Amino acid sequence: MVKWLNVSVALALSTGIIAGCSGSGANQAAGDKPADTKTADANGIDTSEKITINMMSIAYEGGAWGEKHPVIDELNKKLNIDLKIQWVPSDNYVEKLGIMAASNTFPDVFRINSTEYLKWRDKGVFLDIAPLLSKYPHLTKEMDAETLAIGNPKGKTYGLPNWSPEYRETLFVRKDWLEKLKLKPPTTVDELYEVAKAFTKNDPDGNGKDDTMGYSFAIANNRSFTRGAEPLRFAFGLANGWKESNGGIIPWQAQTKELKDFLTFTSKMYADGLLDKDFAINKGQDPDFKFEANKVGFTDVPGTNIYDTGLPNLQKVVPTADVLQLAPPKGPTGLQGNTTYATTNKVVINAKIDKKKQERILALMDYMVTDEGHNLITYGVEGIHYKKTGEKYEVLPAFESDRPMLINFWFFHRFDPFNTVRPWEDQEKPKKVKALFEENKKYLVKDKGAGLFSETFTKVGANIDQKLMGEMVAIIMGQKPVDAIEAAVEAWKKDGGNKVIEEMNEQYKLSK
User: Fold this and answer.
1) Enclosing H/E stretch for 249
2) Residue 135 burial (10 A CB sphere; 0-12, 13-18, 19+)
3) Which of 90, 151, 486, 509 is most buried when burial is the number of CB atoms within 10 A of its CB?
4) Quick check: 223 pLDDT over 50?
5) Ranges of each domain in the chain
6) Which helix (H) or strand (E) covers residue 406, if one does?
7) Would strands 169-174 and 323-326 be described as parallel, antiparallel, or unpaired?
8) Do 7-26+38-165+343-425 and 169-327+454-511 share a fold?
């Protein structure tokens, strides 16, 4: 689930984050007049006619809303709309988009991943909202130009960012294990290796059993390392997707020397028993769960998660457990970097619908990033999902059953890394998370290919990446020598990678 939700707003705490439904611009300012004699919203958009809006979004674990929901009712009243939401399970979402594309039956407004967005961006499917944005001041204030430009040609805006903070992931180590074994926090990959060795061999949990491991990560879709691997990858100079080189860009899959260095290190960890023996079959969050189960000494998770689930779950097992944030370890040449995300997923408006509907959708999105709208789609409806007595907030049972935050999490929200902070929860959490994020920002590794498109990669990328990953797994597990990566990289290039590099560099030059 996407859980990431502006820092200054969040840190205002009870006077900012938890401001009631007063609205900072959702209501017409005193003395202002509507654009005409018809009903108009705060931006002068005519809302006198009730308009049906068909929305589609992805649904993750736990299911989604039914047709009737208190948040939908409130949005309908506020915008004079009839909002109908189609929630599609994440496993079927891309397939559903493909069916709609084939039958030309896209909904009015929908969320879309980066690959599908880039595939259809220039085919007249999505509305270019650039000429309209000036009418929606909350949207324009909310979105920075750099993020808005990702995936869009110059002068065009075909989608609003489905935003997540690029600096959210944080590398943690078990502080109590370090103290028990009298170890210093590691600052280099060599020091991390020694700490991982002690965590594996020296019984840090004190139970007299050989049941702990030093480090774990996972592989996503059998084609890319994830969940803890990135700080190690970046230490050896591997790209976060694509990096600049000699006036162009190159992908990590073509970085033979850097891959060899990374694989030499990780294969040694595996051979010495320090790396999770199940890394190759770990599903996305398995390393997190092993950390929470008191089995592994490092974890690389979103900064908000460590206080929401990671540490609380760990402390159910070990009440005295504690964690320490680490700077990403430096590699042999001093390189280091944190897991870094570019906001490439979008929310798009169907270019074929009439102008009134397009305007009302943008008015809806504009409202959702105001204080009033944000509170509604984050906390729910006062009196139903929470109650307020003076300045004190209390959550009500319907909050858990109705899950009023889903349209926020799974569809669209303002650029707020503390989107999960609610007024009845620990208001110290934003301060702690802000400190994590400020440290993380020092070590961002930008993906220079974010928002660029390769037709060839959509066709062969999964296949050639999976073949390459299979070779890397075999190398790490000692089934093949490290030098085997040279032939694997050449095969990746020959089977389509060279064409991918060519197409991506053409796109890169056009973006400059």
Assistant:
1) strand 248-251
2) middle
3) 151
4) yes
5) 7-26+38-165+343-425, 169-327+454-511
6) helix 406-410
7) antiparallel
8) yes
Contact in structure between 178 and 324 (CB atoms under 8 Å): yes
H/E element holding 492? Answer: helix 484-492
Q: What is the mean pLDDT of residues 15-26?
A: 32
What average pLDDT does the segment 464-472 reach? 97
Give CA–CA dist 503/480, Å, rounded: 32
CA–CA distances in Å: residue 487 to residues 187, 266, 478 = 33, 19, 16
CB of 90 closer than 8 Å to CB of 284: no
Token pair of 473 as six digits:
């797994």
CA–CA separation, 18 vs 393, rounded Å? 9
| C-beta separation of 54 from 358 below 8 A | no
CATH superfamily of 169-327+454-511: Periplasmic binding protein-like II (3.40.190.10)
Residue 255, pLDDT > 90, answer: yes
Query: How are beta strands 224-226 and 109-112 bridged, if at all?
Result: unpaired
How many whole angstroms separate alpha carbon 47 and alpha carbon 370? 18
Q: Residue 83 above 90 pLDDT?
A: yes
Q: How far apart are CA 170 and CA 231, in angstroms?
A: 10
The mean per-residue pLDDT over the stretch 235-263 comes to 97
Residues with Cβ within 8 Å of residue 330, at least 6 apart in sequence: 187, 188, 189, 235, 336
pLDDT tens column, 423-436: 998 888 888 888 99
Write out the H or E segment, with its range, that includes residue 58: strand 51-59
Question: Where is average pLDDT lowest: 24-38, 67-81, 219-233?
Answer: 24-38
Compute the residue count for the chain.
512
Q: Measuring CA to CA, which residue among 134, 131, 130, 137 is closest to residue 152?
A: 130
- Residue 5 banded pLDDT, cuts 50, 70, 90: very low
DSSP 110: E
Q: Is 416 helix (H, G, I), strand (E, B) or coil?
A: coil
Instruction: Determine the CATH number of domain 7-26+38-165+343-425.
Output: 3.40.190.10
